[in-house]
Amino acid sequence: MADNNNLVVYCEFDEGRIADVSLELLTKGRKLADRLGIRLEALVVGSNLAGIESQIFPYGADVVYTVDDARLYPYTSNPHAAVLINLFKEINPQICLMGATCIGRDLGPRVSSALHSGLTADCTALEIGDHTAAKTQTEYHDLLYQIRPAFGGNIVATIVNPECRPQMATVREGVMKKEVLDPNYKGQVIALDPAKYVADTDFVVEIIDRQIAKSKVNIKNSPIIVAGGYGVGSKENFQLLYDLAQTLGGEVGASRAAVDAGFVEHERQIGQTGVTVRPKLYIACGISGQIQHIAGMQESSIIISINNDPNAPINAIADYVITGDIENVVPKLIKYYKKNSK
């Protein structure tokens, strides 16, 4: 089956707007599409989609497919999967990207399974490159490199899908950078007939009521993050980090080890299994720097590491390293910041 000249981003739509993770993927998708010389296409499935393309075109989409039906909003598994499966059989895209959200994690496997295409979840990087199959020595060009930590974070694996299409990957929110390509960019809108892609029998599940609890913690958008690892030692010691964060006007984050130890709640977890952040200042306290954690904060503008181990892996990516115990260093930081900011 020949590749069609398109890369499709499934755009999550809720309460009248496209999700940030989808706009991040459109930004990345534009770069990948340019590298391949193909079209960037977006797919929005939902209800009341008139004008939705105005949120998408600035990110460089050449085509926006809309599938508009009152029954397609809010998201349910079968109808949305049916749309993608049937549309992809028709247009045979080279690549499909979606967010590693609760929707993407439900939808991606259904679509890839039906199309026998394979799927790499939670990618931390996406690139285009060549591959030679070891057994057959067959050469493949311009494949999607789906890059993510593997084997408990001990290696970074590059996964390729030489034969099956589309090459599918999910990416967490915040991993890719969201950038408007051109506010006046214009593409083509193709309104698809829902009846051609979804059968009435797919609508067996009806959503009667929907409750969405918003997270009270907003570390993703904080310009300053004070993050603690297992090396902080205790829940009580984490109070020092809260004091520093409050002094600097920042938020507290944590590594998975600190969350697993019960020092702090899961909403504050940063890394491959938490949130991805790129603050102006990231202060890592007692964090060794496992690959999964670094994947979630390596884009920070300035990284300061406070650690009693001078050889901690995180020190290799830190701009400044303070070797010492949290209990001694953090109170001094607070003291001198207050003294010099008057």
The whole-number mean of residue pLDDT values reads: 90
Question: How far do the termini sit from each other?
Answer: 68 Å
Which overall shape is indicated by the principal axes computed on the Cα atoms? globular
Low-confidence stretches: none
Number of E-type strands: 17
Proportion in helices: 25-40%
Radius of gyration: 22 Å
Beta-strand level of the residues, as a percent range? 25-35%
Structural class: alpha/beta
Specify the biggest β-sheet: 7 strands, parallel
Strand numbers in spatial order across the main sheet: 7-11-6-1-4-5-12
Order of helices and strands: EEEHEHEHEHEEEEEEHEHEHEHEEH
**What is the helix tally?**
9
Give an overview of the whole structure.
By secondary structure, the protein is α/β, with parallel strands linked by helices. It is built from nine helices and 17 strands. Strands 7-11-6-1-4-5-12 form a seven-stranded parallel beta sheet, sandwiched between helices. A five-stranded parallel beta sheet has the order 14-13-15-16-17. A three-stranded antiparallel beta sheet has the order 8-9-10. Strand 9 (139-150) and strand 10 form a beta hairpin. Helix 3 (77-91) packs across helix 4 (102-115). The radius of gyration is 22 Å and the shape is globular. The mean pLDDT is 90.
